[in-house]
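Supplementary Methods, section 5.1.

A reviewer requested that the exact input to the structure prediction be made available. We therefore reproduce it here, unchanged from the version used in the analyses.
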Amino acid sequence: DVLAERRDAFLDFVHSEEDMATVDQILANVGSSEGVGEIETEQCREQEAEKEKDQEQEQEIEMERYADLAYQRDCEEMRRWPIATLAAPEELEKLGAVYPASQFRLYSRSPLPFPSFLHVTRNYFDLHWVGER
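The structure derived from this sequence is encoded cell-by-cell as follows.
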C-alpha cells in the first residue's frame, strides 16, 4: 500500500499514541476517497517502468563489458620509426614495426598469400590484437 509506505517513512515525527491515532484516521479518510486507488496504481506502474528501465541499462552495461572482454587492442598507440628505414624493410622487421603481409589475417581468419616483398605496419593492424572489430 503506497499510503502506508509513505506514512512509515515519516514515523519519526509521530511521538505519541494520539499522534498515531490521528495519522491512522487521516489514512482511513484518504484511503476511502475516490481516485486514490488509481493514483496508487499509477505510482506502481511508474515504479515498475523505472525498474524495467534500470534492468535494461544494467543489461546494456553487462553486454558492453562482455564486448570489451572479447575485443582487446593492447598497445594501440602508434609506434614511431625513422622514415629512412623504409629503404630497408628487414630493418623495420627487426624493429618490430612491420611484418610480412602474408602473415596478415583478421581474428579467426586465414591469411592471404601475399608476395614476400609486401609488409604491413603494426600501426595498421597488430597480430596480437583480439576481437571481431
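The helical segments are 2-9, 17-32, 36-70, 89-95. These observations are discussed further in the main text.
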